[in-house]
Amino acid sequence: MIQIEGRSVLIRFIILLKAKGNRTLLGTDFLSSAGLVLDVKNACWYFWDNPTHKYSFGKELDTPRPWLRICPATPANKERGKVKV
Fold first, then answer.
1. In this structure, are residues 30 and 11 in contact, taking their beta carbons and an 8 Å threshold?
2. Strands lying side by side in the sheet with 36-39
3. C-alpha span between 55 and 38 (Å, rounded)
4. How is 23-84 classified by DSSP, letter by letter?
5. pTM
6. Which pLDDT tens digit goes with each residue over 27-36?
7. Which of 13, 17, 43, 83 is the Cys-Cys partner for 77 at CB 3.0 to 4.6 Å?
8. In this structure, what are the phi and psi dihedrals at residue 70, rounded to the nearest 5 degrees?
């Protein structure tokens, strides 16, 4: 479950360990479950039930990578030196 602007969304994530540097949420299943609408032309998004309250696309944040805690001993993580074994 994730929280986004005060709303909870129950969603299953698939972790792509070999996708180096990819910090993108993939799939319309997530957008649909969260009720998100992307307005790429205006660089913003909103919830389908409140289209007048728009959120700007933010700059990329230095966010924690939870998969390092979920599967710390994977070969991909060992190769990158991100996990001390």
1. yes
2. 36-39, 44-47, 55-56
3. 10
4. -----HHHHHHHTEEEETTTTEEEETT-TTS-EEPPPPP----THHHHSTT-HHHHHTT---
5. 0.57
6. 788 899 999 9
7. 83
8. -70, -45
